[in-house]
Amino acid sequence: MEIKENITLQENDEINVTCSARSRPLPHFTWFISGRQIHDNYTITTFDETGPSGTSTLTYTGNRTDNAERLYCVANSGEKQLDNGTYLSITYPPDIDVYPNGIPIEGIQQYNISCLILDSNPTVNNFRWYINSELVSEQTSNILTIYYLNRTDTNNYTCNATNGIGDPTIDFVFLDVLYKGSILMFNTTNTSMTEGQTYTAYVDVEGKPLPNVTWTRDKTDAILLTENDVTNSSLNMTSMCEDTGNYTVSVDNGLIQPDIRHFRLSVFCSPHKDQNTNNPDEISIEAGGMFTLETKIVAFPQPNITWYFRSNSSQTNRILISDNNVLISDISNDAIHLLTLTIEKTNSSHSGQYTLMVHNSIGQDNTSFTVNIIEAHSESSVKVEAIVAGVLGAVVFIILAACVVNCYRKKQRKAIEDFGPIEPAYTSNTMYYKNQPSIQSIETGENTNKIYAKVIKQTTRQQPEVVIADSDANTSK
């Protein structure tokens, strides 16, 4: 069996390969590439002086997938089988891929673009780079280096790779250089104002991709406004005293760190109670406990704060200061002031009116609280006091009743004695009075408690008329 050896073929070119064998019976030929059957039973029978022989010719087209593979034929003749073959060397231009090494962000130093050789036979021996069709003469390797990446480097980058087979292979990448969101211009209308005026802050921004703009109030982290994918943004609001504070505008498109500007807004106002605060004007607490007076005041500029106290037994206010039993605190956040007065251990002397005076250069506000300290009583003492009170009440009632009865009797006896003895006269079984006197008139003496009565005698047998009188009442029968 005969076959050519070491076949070198450029991709897509054709070559005829012959396999021949001499045998009886004539052989059957089958062609393989590394075990994969590619042709069968292609036989030409020839005769010469030595006898009959068989020949099979294969027309092979170069394919890069067969590179370095073994091409062979198998000849079968009865129970005998022979094979012979050669290795293929398929040449072809390079297959390449151009790609950036990482996200192209402005400011990166030594940014690389690579020309990756996916496949080639023989290997690539020459590279050329082009930027928008302009040759970069100093770059001859498969890596193009940009030593400082700038937004102006946004271009097409082309790699030209050749290995001497066919035309050069070309591939390119469009490099879109990104740059962080930033503030080009920041402007505010007014940062100091009175309540009710309109406040406006404005920014012009840039970035690739377009940035998001967020307006927030510091400390509270309250987001006032967010606008996405914009080139400018503005914050507008009608100012209130509570709006006094520090603010931030942030421009961010996800690249590196956001660009931030800080600004402060001052809204001036006279002190007044926060509209969300509803404190009781009067509180009651048992002695020995703790009480706290608390209120929230809005004021700017920073106010002066004074607590006054007037007890129930005094008409004079006195200033309260912090000591071991009295704690005064002021927690301020710009224009918001949380003011508290705490008395740790109370007694009856703490009953009275507490007044909070807050004033600044704009005005003044007073808030008053009435505090009642109730002396604590035990249950047993209350029962004893109730029993004692009941007993005393009963004794007093008995004494008063006895006095009334006694006085009434004395007055009756005294009136009878003043009219002298009564002489009874008996006729049959009937008793009547003889020569019984009667009262004709009654007079009172000036500036005295005496009563004068003019008495006349009667000779009738009628019962005498008795008048009882004193200095504090008119006559009564």
From TrEMBL:
SUPFAM superfamilies named among the record's database cross-references: Immunoglobulin (SSF48726)
Transmembrane regions listed in the UniProt entry: 386-408
Annotated membrane topology: Single-pass type I membrane protein
Record-level Gene Ontology MF annotations: cell adhesion molecule binding
SMART domains for this protein: IG (SM00409)
Gene Ontology cellular component terms for the protein in this record: cell-cell junction; plasma membrane
Taxonomic superkingdom: Eukaryota
Protein's cellular compartments: Membrane
One Pfam family linked to the record: I-set
Ig-like domain span: 1-89, 94-171, 181-266, 271-372
InterPro entries: CD80_C2-set, Cell_adhesion_signaling, Ig-like_dom, Ig-like_dom_sf, Ig-like_fold, Ig_I-set, Ig_sub
Any one Gene Ontology BP term: cell-cell adhesion
Keywords: Disulfide bond, Glycoprotein, Immunoglobulin domain, Membrane, Transmembrane, Transmembrane helix
Sections of the chain in a coiled coil: none
Protein's recorded name: HMCN
UniProt organism field: Mytilus edulis (Blue mussel)
